[in-house]
Amino acid sequence: MFSWKKVKKFPIIVAHRGESAKAPENTMTAFRMAVKEGADAIELDVHLTRDKQIVVIHDDKIDRTTDGKGFVCNYSLSQLKNFDATTLWNKKFPTEPVPALDNVLSEFGDTIGINIEIKKERTLTGQYDLIMKCIELVSKYKLSESILFSSFSIKVIEKIGELDFNIPRGLLYDPLMHSLKSPISIAKSIGAKYLIMNHRVLTKKIVRSVHDNDMLIGGFTVNTIRQADRLLRYGIDMIITNHVSHILTNIR
Hints:
The protein is an alpha/beta fold and 252 residues long. 33% of the residues lie in helices and 18% in strands.
């Protein structure tokens, strides 16, 4: 089983929303393709439904990636299953519903690492419920080492740490959102093991400083060999990409 705490092979190659360059993002098809093509982990996004179930979808609305409209939080899980999550691909794939996180963990939890990005909910209650439900599912499947929780929200990372300090956490850093404060000092202060940044702003100095502070660093979203090579020279620990097979073929 993959462990975010005891990584055996660097860099960790993470399939961003699954193998999303070749399949509809955040679908079971994209996740299965990522596994088949050799990804070390999959990255996915989660939101909470009206009946407090966790679904895997990037946006807080279903408009962009399905044939439905409206906010995720206004639908029950059973209602969301009526919409097609492959609609962006013009019928190149069989219809498929928005996945429940429960199903993803059940199928992939013991075979591949999973990076769960906790997205922003529309209410504080919804945000807390989403965090709680995620932790409950991780506990249900005994996946505390193979799951990495990540978020742009400092409060979300702190809350996860309060509820279960043993689950690895990663801070997604945005200089504007975080008021240009030092990414390393923020990540360290909230107990994040991973600092995850846009690959364009990463430098060798930043990577070295992260390592000096006993943390690991990842870059997103890396889709060319030139980008990957630069990060490898810096000593990057994790590459998040839409093109798993392309990156893997050229760096390993």
